[in-house]
Amino acid sequence: MLKFLSKLFGSKSERDVKGVQPLVNKIKEEYEKLSALTHDELRGKTLDFKQRISNYLQDIDNEINGLKQEAEATEDMELKTSTYDKIDKLTKDRDKKLEEVLLEILPEAFAVVKETARRFTENKEIEVTASQFDRDIAARKPNVSIEGDKAIWKNTWIAAGSEVTWNMVHYDVQLIGGIVLHQGKIAEMSTGEGKTLVGTLPTYLNALAGQGIHIVTVNDYLARRDSEWNGPIFEFHGMSVDCIDKYQPNSPQRRQAYMSDIVYGTNNEFGFDYLRDNMTNTKESMVQRKLHFAMIDEVDSVLIDDARTPLIISGPIPMGDQHEFYQLKPRIERLVNAQKAYINTVLNQAKKAIADNDTDPEKGGLALFRAYRGLPKNKALIKYLSEGNHRQILQKVENYYMQEQNRHMPKADAELFFVIDEKNNQVELTEKGIELITATGEDPNFFILPDVGTEIAEIEKSDIPVEEKAQKKEELMRDYSIKAERIHSINQLLKAYTLFEIDDQYIVDEGKVKIVDEQTGRIMDGRRYSDGLHQAIEAKENVKVEDATQTYATITLQNYFRMYHKLSGMTGTASTEAGELWEIYKLDVVEIPTNKVIQRDDRQDLIYRTAREKYNAVAQEIQTLTEQGRPVLVGTTSVEISELLSRMLKLRGVKHNVLNAKLHQKEADIVAEAGRPGQVTIATNMAGRGTDIKLTQEVINAGGLAIIGTERHESRRVDRQLRGRAGRQGDPGSSQFFVSLEDPLMRLFASERISNLMVKMGVEDGEVMQHGMLTKSIERAQRKVEENNFGTRKHLLEYDDVMNSQRTVIYTKRKNALFGERLDVDLNNTIYDVVEDVVLEAKEDNSFDEFQIEVIRVFAINPEITQEEFASESATTLVDKLFDQVINYYHRKAVNIAEQTLPVLTNVLAERGGMIENIIVPFTDGIRGIQVATNLQKAVESKGKDVFKSFEKGIVLALIDEAWKEHLREMDDLKQSVQNARYEQKDPIIIYKMEAYNLFKTMLAGMNKDIVSFLFKGEIPGQQQEPQNIQAARPEAPKVKVKETKEELSSPTGVSEEDLNTQEAQVTQPIRKDQAIGRNDECPCGSGLKYKNCHGKQG
Predict the structure, then answer these.
(1) In what order do the strands lie in the sheet with 150-154?
(2) DSSP-assigned states of every residue in 819-859
(3) Is the predicted pLDDT of residue 688 greater than 60, yes or no?
(4) Sheet containing 549-556: which strands, arranged edge to edge?
(5) Are 113 and 203 in contact (CB under 8 A)?
(6) d(CA 541, CA 500)
(7) What would the mean pLDDT of 328-357 be, rounded to a whole number?
(8) Where is the Helicase ATP-binding domain positioned along the sequence (predicted)?
(9) Is 1009 annotated as a binding-site member?
């Protein structure tokens, strides 16, 4: 039915493309007009576009500026609040109006980029009238030179260490891709269709707005390469281009890079810069501007695969090096060995029983089911299940034990030491397992959590003094906490030993456990499994177990990118995840047609019974294809399989290269050779995304690149990425997947139906099956896994959204304090909230004494409310009365401090003003002290008012950071502890939301009280009021050493356990050093001055 409807109305892709066709025609019309323009006139179009945008937005900009002046001038808090609300609304309206004018300019702007690309392709040099911007570029880059008042732009420059000559002009389909990206959608484009070139169109158009456009790549090599490759096209039009990954975090150079019109960088660095900006104490230290428009390359990798991975900035915690992994490891080894021995025994029993036709779920079938529940990855079991009808027998037994809500399951698990649920990546200890790991003479409850509810009830019932009851409760909670941590460590070690295998999910390199990305096959440097799992694997592999750390700031990429005004992206494979991209990011996927029809022959899957037969067939096929003179790219899903195939080909005498996580340094050389006749390249998924294999004419005549997939990945995107390496730009090629019933995907999700079919058709060992229906059946299994993964990610999103809403509140408060514009509104509200809390708490207890004490404690004043008024008047009236008294006192205090500091500051300015720009003013509340930096000149000009404003800002920032850091630690603990709710048949996410809300509410109330208390009690110590004791402010001192981590979520809950980022820069291309300019040489900008006196000053 769907096929009939798409034939009738066209597919979604066809309708999308048809919708933008009128714009493509307009671009082509505008393009025809441009060839008559001189180079200078073509460059003048950019200034014209900018002026048109400025004119279109002039009215709304004037209105916003007027409101800002109005807000700054008034002291009326209500008016100020409503004015800022209007400004926020108008800022959003401005973004909408900007999109209107950009759409109007689009055809002309895209035509200008295409014409520029044509001129650079057809001319080795382009001569234009030199602008100051040209002179600045000439001083830094050799592709621009200045001759008098002329600038010469060459069409050859250095990109990623290699010389490139511009030779690309946009096709019509690339214009379609550019329009789709500008509309804030995802453009799905096949390999070799020039995604990098497509990106130049919306980049130029959106950069005209001057708001900064962020182009996001998956690694720093691509960020640097693309910024250097495409940069000159934009720079020719006076647009600044930079790459943040070239500079150190928080450096002036990185801040300057963000000020560029076009900013390239990796997803991690953009996210980490956002976190760092929300940890700084001066607005001058912030690097990012408004998050306006982000365009993401390989968007599915960033917004799907990496989206829920938290970026974490963390620091040391007390006793972070204390853990029990080494102590518990021998017990787990004993447990795993005992289970292996038991499983071997029951599997042999099952084989004998089934051979005698005993498949009873209580007898022979039970033995097979126990083997499966105990060690589903056991190689002997996997082989046995791929033979005959054994898989169907297992399915029937499993159905028997799962009926009536698993009522019979405890009987099946009774003899096992632990149970593995491979589909959900879970391991659970049984009673028998707990007995085995509990040492002789040890407390039998050493690994059993106490029933807190029951035991507290018992304590409450007992006839003992209140102090003793409190002590017993405290001991119980301490016991619970220690045991919960111990059981958690046991479970993670068990996972490490049973579900995670070296050279599959991770490798050990240079004494560190490094995760291998299942999507790309690359090492994910600096990434660690969360929830203590990484530490458990480190203990298992006998490498150093890294210390635990405390979170200072965290965000997921998913929530970071949702903050942009506009988001778009490009990739070769997004349609399989279109539903998720729309549901979470509201991003529509548009399939862009190819420039030339794809010639690749995608063959139906070849299905074998066993892995041994499959790999023999793969080796034979490789040999046949190399004899035909065709290059072969063999895709594997793990390091282990790539090494196995390599050994098989060596035995057959077939020359080949291996590309996997262990050999990533040779990637550039191996990919460069991969398109040669008869060349065999065995690669993990590394050779999928972003690898462009170019073919010689000899290879094209022989039939093109042959792709061989050694198994189906659980994600269709990865298979499509591998297929996409062949058939670029109309080249011939073929792709063929080899599958066995022992493959993980088939074993878990697809093999039952196919196995039944093989039995019915009498397929013998060694024979192969191939049919379109079977390929579709495998793809259905992949879809099942994708849906399952999406469900897990949606569940994670619920946890993530709780954290995100809290982060938004805190970072907004922080930003208001940092910039100071809205700080007085925030503080006014904060003081009112604290007054309300004090009154309501006292009213609830009906205690006037408590009320008096609390007002004196927090505000350092005596309340002007009598006991009679407190008893007779309503809470609202009391709140208003106390607030008026408190706020008047606060304003008087501000005036007093200004008067107190002004004479001293005036004296310092007169005597040392030439040497001192900022000064330190110390404040103390009698317990804690804080040093506040303030600008000396501004403080004197404002008659001392600026000192009090700096004091407010310093206090608010310091106490927000302190409270938030502690809150993050409590949230980490909460996320871990709510998982125990499962044992009580409760939903952890509901408990998490309720508890997180209460924690946040308590944290905000406590933080507000601390801020208000310090503001009211804070004074300048007496001896510091003398001019000779005033100190100059030094640059902000570095804080505690922090670590930046990108975490790998190993469980649906994503519990955080942050660790060190050990990422090192990888050289994947030859590096050529740029020609250095001597300090005494003439500056290349044409000024006639020496370099050291001109552009060399900036270095």
Answers:
(1) 125-129, 150-154, 144-147
(2) H-TTHHHHHHHHHHHHHHHHHHHHHHHT-HHHHHHHHHHHH
(3) no
(4) 527-529, 1043-1048, 310-316, 549-556
(5) no
(6) 11
(7) 90
(8) 176-335
(9) no
The annotation status of 194 as a binding-site residue, yes or no, is yes
Is the pLDDT score of 1037 beyond 70?
no
What distance in Å separates the CA atoms of residue 307 and residue 585, rounded to the nearest whole number? Answer: 11
Please count the other Cβ atoms lying within 10 Å of the Cβ belonging to residue 444: 9
222: its two tokens: 């691509």
Helix (H, G, I), strand (E, B) or coil at 550: strand
Tokens of 1078: 């001597």
Q: Which residues of 1052-1084 are buried (b: 16+ CB within 10 A; e: fewer)?
A: bbbbbbbbebebeeeebeeeeeeeebeeeeebb
Mean pLDDT over residues 1002-1017, rounded? 92
CA-based end-to-end distance of the chain = 67
**In the block, which residue shows the tokens 């099942």?**
784
Q: Is 937 annotated as a binding residue?
A: no
What are the phi and psi torsion angles at 617 (to 5°)? -65, -40
Amino acid at 183: Q
Whole-structure pTM value: 0.77
Question: 715: pLDDT confidence band, cut at 50, 70 and 90?
Answer: confident
265 is an annotated ligand-binding site residue: no
Q: Say if residue 692 carries a ligand binding annotation.
A: yes
What is the token pair recorded at 911? 């005597």
Q: Is 417 helix (H, G, I), strand (E, B) or coil?
A: coil
Instruction: Tally the residues of the chain.
Output: 1099
Strands 144-147 and 125-129: unpaired
Each residue's pLDDT tens digit, 221-253:
889 989 999 999 999 999 999 999 999 988 999
Is 1099 known as a binding-site position?
no
Distance between CA atoms of residues 840 and 664, nearest Å: 64
Scan for tokens 């077939």, then name that residue: 654
Give me the residue label for tokens 């462009």. Answer: 692
pLDDT in tens, 857-913: 888 888 888 888 888 888 899 999 999 999 999 999 999 988 888 888 888 888 877
